[in-house]
């Protein structure tokens, strides 16, 4: 059982989300699960998966499809082709440090983004590469953005939702709008919203992204563990 802010829920953030908050966005077979197309390519299998679990996942995805295993340490059978390996960190927001959510004011130029904003969100992601983002990813949670002269120049959103936790994701600012505090303001707004509903923020960052890492540490995030992200193609 996982309760509020139980850290064990963070060892399988994809599986916990697909069984819980995101069950309505899941495709599953046996113990294997993934998101519906267009939302995310993240997949989950039971801990210490057997051949049947991998076969179930292959069946859900279909042949020759991309399986983003996220931080799952289990390696699929040899006929699954490796697509990528990326070293990263899972960071959790440490209580009693970083911004005081009670001091947060919802900025006037901060807007909640929805389906009608997807083309601009995809364009911003294309220009900034914060991590995977698809046309329906915004359905995973709340996405907040900042506009300058009407154009979307920064956004931050919510992604995985294991019990008691919300992952902050898609942190990006257009190159021409950087250094104006947009990312910090959006991150603080999300932290405040997540804490206000009794949950705790966490996030993932690539080890090589030293700029983002330093930014998260300044905001009160601490490294919980080092993880390896892996993606494969089904046979
Ligand atoms: C990381 C990113 C979102 C920061 O956006 P931003 O709106 O410019 O950030 P802010 O203006 O709020 O900057 C906050 C602080 O971090 C610093 N900072 C921001 N990006 C940095 C970088 N790449 N390297 C070093 N420092 C950085 C800023 O100098 C600023 O410091 P200051 O407050 O002392 O002036 C932006 O650089 C970006 O879109 N990067 C590409 C996408 C990405 O890697 N996202 C993170 C995925 S985990």
UniProtKB/TrEMBL annotation:
Residues 108-235 form the N-acetyltransferase domain. It comes from the Bacteria. This is GNAT family N-acetyltransferase. It comes from Streptomyces tibetensis.
